[in-house]
Amino acid sequence: MIISLTGFMGCGKSSVGRELSRLLCCPFMDLDSVIEEREGRKIPEIFATEGEAAFRRMEAEALRKCIYGQASDKLVVALGGGTVMTEECAKIVHEKTVCIYLRASVETLMDHLAGEVDNRPMLAGNLRTRIEELMSIRSATYEKTAHIMIDTDGKTIEEIAREISIKELFI
Ligand code: S3P
C-alpha cells in the first residue's frame, strides 16, 4: 500500500509524511526532493530557467517512477502542492495510492509559509492573495482526488500523523 499526502504548500505534507513513515516503520519519499535530486538543482531554479510546464512534466515523470517503481509493500509519499493539478498525476494518485488531503485554513498556511516564499515560485506576489487564488482553483481537486481528508488547523505534526496511522488500520 502506498499512502500519499496532498494539500496546499505549507500544510505539512513533508513533515507529517516523515513522522507517519516513522510510525508505520516504512520508507518515505518526498516528491519535490526526488525531482531536485534527479535534476541536480532546486525547484526555484527549475521554474526560473524552464518554467512551470517543464516542472510539471518532471513532476509527472518522478511520480510515475515513484509509484510504479516502488519495491516495499508500504510507502509514504509527500506530493507537491500542485501535483494533483496535472490530470494524469491525479488519476495515478487516486487509483494507485490511499490519498490523504491535509486541509488547512488560509491563516494556518500564512503562518507556515511566512519566510518560505522564496522557495516556492508559485507564491510570488502578495502571499494571502496567492494562497486564496490558488486554493479556490485547487481545493475541489484536492477533495476529489483524496480518499480521506484531515483538518490540520491547531494540530501538531505528531497529532496529524497519529490520526492518519489510526485510520490506516481500517483501510
Ligand atoms: C508547488 C508546490 C511545491 C513544489 C513547487 C510547486 C505547487 O511543493 O512542488 O514549488 O504548485 O503548489 P510543496 O507543496 O511541498 O511546497
Labels describing this entry:
171 residues; alpha/beta; 5-stranded parallel β-sheet; 56% helix; globular; binds shikimate-3-phosphate
Structural commentary:
Helices cover 56% and strands 13% of the residues. The protein contains 7 helices and 5 strands; from the N terminus they run βαβααβαβααβα. Strands 2-3-1-4-5 form a 5-stranded parallel beta sheet, sandwiched between helices. Helix 1 crosses helix 7 (157-168), helix 2 (31-39) crosses helix 3 (43-68) and helix 5 (106-113) packs across helix 6. The model has no long low-confidence stretch (mean pLDDT 96). Shikimate-3-phosphate binds at residues 9, 13, 32, 43, 80-82, 120-122.
Brief description of this entry?
By secondary structure, the protein is of the alpha/beta class. Helices cover 56% and strands 13% of the residues. The chain is built from seven helices and five strands, in the order E-H-E-H-H-E-H-E-H-H-E-H.
Task: Annotate the secondary structure layout.
Elements: E1 2-6, H1 13-24, E2 28-30, H2 31-39, H3 43-68, E3 75-78, H4 87-96, E4 98-103, H5 106-113, H6 127-145, E5 148-151, H7 157-168
Parallel strand pairs: 1-3, 1-4, 2-3, 4-5
The chain binds shikimate-3-phosphate.
